[in-house]
Amino acid sequence: MNIDEVECCEVKDTHEELVKAVHDKMPSEDKLYDLAELFKVFGDLTRIRILYVLFESELCVCDLASTLDMNQSAISHQLKVLKQAKLVKGRREGKSVIYSLSDDHVRTMIAQGMEHIEEM
Which helix (H) or strand (E) element contains residue 90? Predict the structure, then answer.
């Protein structure tokens, strides 16, 4: 058997109680769509780089641009996407806006994602 093939059951026997129990716990299509959209945000290298930098330290756009060797316009565009997804937040300090991860859930997703790929 080719290692890329997915094994299937030899007997077509549905476990009705198990299927019903799982089906009853399935979130609505709207919630699953929102979850898929959230994960799409993680599918962009620039956004992942920004999130990882903010995982390490909160920074202003100028510092993010310098750290990632990118222009501020590109950083600002990606920060807008990350803010819309509620993954980052900004707070004003004088003339600067300091960005950070929105909450510990975002920190956990990044940490667990890194842990997962390091196990591969």
Answer: strand 88-93
The whole-angstrom separation of Cα 31 and Cα 26 is 10
Let me know if domain 32-119 sits in CATH 2.40.50.840: no
| Whole-prediction pTM | 0.84
| Rounded Cα gap, residues 52 and 67, in angstroms | 11
Closest CA to 88 of 49, 117, 62: 49
Q: Rounded to 5 degrees, what angle do the CA atoms 70, 103, 111 make?
A: 70
Q: Which residues pair with 98 in a beta bridge?
A: 60, 91
> Cα 72 to chain center, whole Å?
22
Distance of CA 103 to the CA centre of its chain: 13
Contact 50, 64 (CB under 8 A): yes
User: How does DSSP classify residue 23?
Assistant: H
Residue spans of the domains in the chain: they are 32-119
**pLDDT tens digits for range 16-59:** 999 999 999 999 999 999 999 999 999 999 999 999 999 999 99
